[in-house]
Amino acid sequence: MDATILIVEDEKNINDVLGFTFAKSGYKTLSAYDGPTGLDMCLNEKPDLVLLDVNLPGMDGMDVCKQIRKTSNVPIIMLTAREDEVDKVLGLELGADDYITKPYSARELTARVKALLRRANADNSNSEPKENTGIITSGDVTINVDRYEVKKNGKTLDITLREFELLKFLAEAPDQIFSREVLLENVWGYEYLGDVRTVDVTIRRLREKIEDDPSMPRYIITKRSIGYYFNKI
Ligand code: CA
Questions:
Q1: What is the pLDDT of residue 124?
Q2: What are the backbone angles phi and psi of residue 116, rounded to the nearest 5°?
Q3: Which residues fall in a coiled-coil region (predicted)?
């Protein structure tokens, strides 16, 4: 199956170059040049991945991302022009899976797209049952590894794929401390060219969802200057 990538970018030459790059790598591409059209195309055409520029006419990329996340978990990579947008882009409420700062190399972007699609595909194929799958319970949190589902007090949480992968990775080895670098390598799954802030931000998002008090976490614990671990309660 050829994956379809939706490119939402108002600068026509950039959009064209991206389209060309991914078409050459064997992907189908769709292009939108403003926020509302991008959102429409995402909801109607159901692409396998969305490249979403932050600064767009009509509706900015952050709002488009939030709207998409109301109904879809499609992998989203935000294209940001400024380093200082990164925290906002990866912010709690947005739900993007990754970001890349302009100017980026086609090779780097392609690597990230491939990694996200591979992950999404692996998650969608229920072909052979994996080992170590099942249900992990700690306190009032239940992680159903096969169904990609996390519940707190019996209520299903709205969780992105990346948050799930990170939680699962930590929870499968409770009490084991992992450095940010190790988490990046194992959860993000490729030679990550960004920085470890990505891990911190994703941890923060997870805590907002699974902890009673995110400032006093009981499940995902910070080991100062080392990393994080999952606390089995
Ligand atoms: Ca733009």
A1: 60
A2: -65, -40
A3: none
Q: How far is the CA of 100 from the centre of ligand 1 (A)?
A: 13
pLDDT in tens, 162-221: 899 999 999 988 889 999 888 988 888 755 566 778 899 999 999 999 999 999 999 999
> What is d(CA 45, CA 190) in angstroms, rounded to the nearest whole number?
28
Instruction: For residue 102, report the distance from its CA to the centre of ligand 1, in Å.
Output: 11
- Quote the tokens at residue 21: 């790059």
Ligand 1 centre to CA of 216 (Å) is 39
**220 C-alpha to ligand 1 centroid (Å):** 37
Do 64 and 41 contact (CB within 8 A), yes or no? no
Give the global pTM. 0.57
State in Å: Cα 232 to ligand 1 middle: 45
Report CA(219)–ligand 1 centroid distance (Å).
Answer: 39
pLDDT of 25 reads 86
**Strand order, beta sheet including 49-53:** 28-32, 4-8, 49-53, 76-80, 98-101
Give pLDDT tens digits for 57-105.
Answer: 999 999 999 999 988 889 999 998 777 777 667 654 677 888 888 777 8
